[in-house]
Design goal:
Helices cover 58% and strands 0% of the residues. With 234 residues, the chain is mainly α.
């Protein structure tokens, strides 16, 4: 009988460590634990899935949806009804101003209320030294051509406002502010009063997504009487 070591030389455990085969195996043994220590794609997906399931991950997105414009604020129906008395009444209350601002964001016209708020802050400046930087910021943000949040002003109002920026006064933006105020009062404010979030506040309930129901019907033998099978579909 032939020596088994001659038939299967790979079983020769006494082979020299200088052989190439031993070097390859030794290198593979060292690399294997290193590869195992790296997180696989499946582990990364699991971690991402757990992150997406956390409530705080979706909290900001949840409040920005149209159905949750006023959900974060505790507003009584009586207070919400007062918002419908006048546009000035709505803006004079913080909760009303916040609700209206969120509503304008759903219509992508929040620059109007942001400009109005900036003008209100501008008029509260205590010294002429504060007026110049604020006036420049308001002009560059809301009024000048291609401003990032340019409001809709007629040519005359925009021209007069632009001429007064060099020497601003507390009344510099009054004409522009009144124009934007009337625009919101006549256009956006009526739509806000007809919106579902506001009507739900008046009724004293939070906005809720309607539940979809599927009608089910049991067929009887009478339903199939007089019906002939169509064999052409086979």
């Amino acid at each position: 009988m032939e020596n088994p070591l001659l038939l299967f030389p790979q079983l020769n455990i006494s082979a020299s460590k200088d052989k190439p085969y031993y070097k390859v195996m030794k290198s593979a043994i060292k690399e294997e634990p290193h590869k195992a220590s790296k997180p696989g794609a499946k582990q990364k997906r699991n971690r991402l899935s757990l992150l997406l399931q956390k409530p705080e991950f979706h909290e900001r997105d949840h409040l920005s949806k149209p159905g949750n414009l006023t959900k974060a604020a505790s507003v009584s129906p009586e207070e919400a009804v007062k918002w419908g008395e006048s546009f000035d009444k709505l803006l004079s209350e913080k909760a009303g101003l916040d609700a209206f601002t969120k509503f304008l964001k759903t219509e992508f016209s929040e620059e109007n209320i942001e400009f109005w708020i900036a003008c209100e802050d501008y008029k509260k400046s205590k010294s002429t030294h504060e007026l110049l930087p604020k006036a420049k910021t308001i002009f560059e943000t809301f009024i000048q051509k291609d401003a990032p949040k340019e409001v809709n002003l007629d040519f005359h109002t925009k021209e007069v406002t632009s001429q007064n920026i060099g020497q601003p006064l507390p009344t510099t933006f009054d004409a522009a502010q009144n124009t934007v105020y009337r625009l919101m009062e006549q256009d956006s404010y009526p739509r806000f009063l007809r919106s579902d979030p506001y009507l739900n506040l008046v009724k004293g309930r939070n906005p809720a997504r309607p539940t979809l129901r599927r009608r089910s019907r049991s067929f009887t033998v009478n339903d199939f009487q007089g019906v002939r099978p169509d064999f052409t579909v086979w």
